[in-house]
Structures are given as structure tokens and as C-alpha cells.
Amino acid sequence: MADKSSKEISFPHTQFPILVMHKDGKDLKDTKKCYFQSVSHAEKYIERCKFKQKDYQLHIKPGTNVENMVQGTRRKNRKK
Asked: Domain range spanning residue 31?
């Protein structure tokens, strides 16, 4: 899942160890970098954008324990 060249990729945000890189813009000339807190957030983004596996690169910061990542908490049915 993660690319071997992730050692060369910089992760400027300590709270966002997951990076999705994909082509964007007119004629797909630009490279867009999106940082996420967890793999599930990155997967939701990939599904929403309907990327195929060849369309993006997923990088995980070295030393990140993906199995123990805390899922984001979201309030559902919040009473007003």
C-alpha cells in the first residue's frame, strides 16, 4: 500500500502522517498533496474522488503504527 520512496517524502504536519498524491488541474499537469490523520480518512477521499489505483500514490510516514490509529470521532444525531 505504501510506496518504498516514502523516506524521501516530507511530512510537514506531525498530526497528519498519511499522504495521498495525485494529478490535478487542466491536462493533469499539477500534483496535489493531501494529508490525512488516518488511513480511513484517506480511503474516504479516494472513494469520493473515484480514483483508480493507478491515479494516486498513498504514502505513510515511516514509524507510523497504522493498526493503532485512533479513528476520528464524529457526533451523530446531536441534540440542539
From this structure: 14-60
